[in-house]
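As promised in the previous annual report, we have extended the structural survey to additional targets. Below is the entry for Cupin type-1 domain-containing protein.
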Amino acid sequence: MASKIFNMIFFSLLISSFAIIQMATAGDADIPSDFIIPQNVTTVDGNFFTFIGLRSIVGSNPPPTFKASKASLVEFPALNGHSVSYAVLQFPAGTTNPPHIHPRSAELLFLVDGTLQVGFVDTTNKLFNQTLQTDPRAVNLGDPNFQHLQYNADANNSALAISAFGSANAGTISIPNTLFTTGIDDTILAKSFKTNVATIQALKAGLTRAVHPGRINSNSGFRPWSNPGRNPDLKYRINPVRVPDFKSEPGFKTRYPDFIN
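The corresponding structure token record, generated without further manual editing, is:
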């Protein structure tokens, strides 16, 4: 019974937020026709204007990490030119949506379940922070081009929110990824954050899953290369090993290391 009530509330909020979205800043140009048909679409019927990609979220268990499920131009081409899109934000206990920017639209966030700490920083470096709760239910506006933050501080319960955007493609610029996974020189970042290169490299290593193998030590381990933004120094390079040159013991499978640039 509780699940049915939750489903009804979820879909009611999803539908009613179309009326609210007019508060958001439209980021799309007007189109001279009723709608835009992609070149790879040959049949336009009710299915073209229907998106079911969010259906599996209703009644499902929280994901292991923060997850944003979008209904934007990429997932739902019928939105092209209509200045509207959605994102369903799932926050397991104690998780965050890393600080980010939406360059082409404001964000109107509606908290469906749980509690959520939200906020943004304006151009004067002032933080506007608020803790949203579902009793009473709350709506929060995030201005475009400002850094947003969203955090579920509850260590035991998940949170669910719906974000509406005034653009079919609001865009998302993740602040941590932009700074630490795009190849910006370690020295530049260290000076900017008034820290040392080792700290910057530790931050970069934590944001990338790619571990670059280096010199093999006496324990057959690898010395990691933690700067994916550039090629490793020559002393860390490994020459490729071919099967005829390296015969492993019978019954062992050999996996060859490779650098990911």
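The longest helix spans residues 2-20. Residues 181-245 form one domain. These points will be discussed at the next consortium meeting with the crystallography subgroup.
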